[in-house]
Amino acid sequence: MAKSQTKPAKADAVSRSSRVELKERTRLRLIEAALSLIGQGRGYSSLSLREITREAGVVPAAFYRHFRDLDELGLALVEMGGVTLRHLLREARRDGLSPTDMLRTSVLIYKRYVEERSLVFRFLAGERGGGSPVIRQAIRTEESHFASEMAQDLRALGTLPDLSSNALHMICGLVVTTMLNAASDILDLPKSRPKQEQELVDNFVHQLRVVFLGARFWRER
Amino acid sequence: MAKSQTKPAKADAVSRSSRVELKERTRLRLIEAALSLIGQGRGYSSLSLREITREAGVVPAAFYRHFRDLDELGLALVEMGGVTLRHLLREARRDGLSPTDMLRTSVLIYKRYVEERSLVFRFLAGERGGGSPVIRQAIRTEESHFASEMAQDLRALGTLPDLSSNALHMICGLVVTTMLNAASDILDLPKSRPKQEQELVDNFVHQLRVVFLGARFWRER
DNA sequence: TATTCGAGTGAACACATGTTTACTCGACAA
DNA sequence: TTGTCGAGTAAACATGTGTTCACTCGAATA
After folding, report:
1. Are the beta carbons of A30 and A53 closer than 8 angstroms?
2. Total-model pTM
3. DSSP per residue over A26-67, as a string?
4. Under a CB-based contact definition with an 8 Å cutoff, are residues B146 and B90 in contact?
5. Which of A41, A46, A184 faces B46 most closely, judged by CB atoms?
6. Which pLDDT tens digit goes with each residue over A210-221?
7. A173/B215 touch (CB, cutoff 8 Å), yes or no
8. Could you give the CA distance from residue B115 to residue B95 in angstroms, rounded to a whole number?
9. Of residues A132, A137, A215, nearest to B210 (C-beta)
């Protein structure tokens, strides 16, 4: 009979709450608990295992069924951050860019994006420079990938056609730095302060404009 | 007699270890203990009061004679960071800048400077994005002052004479971001990896070159 | 249907933590 | 010389911490 084969075909709709699904569910609960605590102003590197399990509604010992230690949870958060960044790029790619004021609209879209995923960006911005070396390094790798993809996209769009791949990557690195720095600023914006908000956006736009202006006149040497 | 006046003239060489001097001394011990722990790879926001006093060779309760809590110690570190940055600028000002390859030499000087004061820069780079909100904000203020001074210096040197003060400040902000980001990279360099080191320096130089190139072609509005 | 298997439990452990309290004891001003 | 004043001490406190262990109990398998 087909059912009793060694490989259970596909695990169809019946297994609504299979074991592995349930495990994955609480794994997610742990991740989200950590993010939620970050959202309450705490830095990831100052969170404790017990705090996280408490927030996740699970007993401390259960943590070890999913992660060896806090660093491993942190790496899961980094990966989530990486996915978020790739998704951002994918959206930007889809939207295309109107030639006029395209920088400004990109910035506004980015701002919204950051605000809607504030927890992940808080984590990235917060652990990027401090925290555990292994997490910091993982974030850096993610940033570099992000920069590479961005470079590829710019190339495909025909922007800055005269630049070498190396130069393009280096410039995208600069853009990424600026973006993540701006994310930090965006997240610390006091709400309902439109003036301050406007200033921040302007500053961000202008900085990117300077970078792309410089890129246009860049000559290899 | 001149000695018994109400105001003790000058606190001369005799009062080698006056009370206030001794207090200041252990205050410094606490600050340096925190820095030392940072140097061992820990982020400031994950340090504990007891850890710090232990490292400083002092009993936990003594901490409160100097700081209300860890945030207050953190602010002292921020101020120390501010002093460090101002000092950097003062040195750069003194050295003047040879017109050819001035960017590259500046970068090398900066790199050396960061390495020699690695602990302070570790602290700044680490708490800039994460950590306690009050510390983060204090660092941001310090950065802004640094950017302003830099703008003033550039103005005095006649660099970028066509830029408005606002534009100049905005560009210096970009430079500062890039510098602190690079500091983070410099501090994480594995030692005796000259190739990697060279790449990092090149990248840093190129990024700054792009920024200044963009600045030269910047037109308001 | 009977058996295995492993995610989550609850309790216990050996410490580490922040803060308070009453204290010592030496520099300093009177 | 005497008395004050305050930096640093020692001990105690109530909690919080990471990790371990034997356990339950229900879904997955055979």
Report:
1. yes
2. 0.92
3. HHHHHHHHHHHHHHTT--GGG--HHHHHHHHTS-GGGGGGT-
4. no
5. A46
6. 999 999 999 986
7. no
8. 19
9. A215
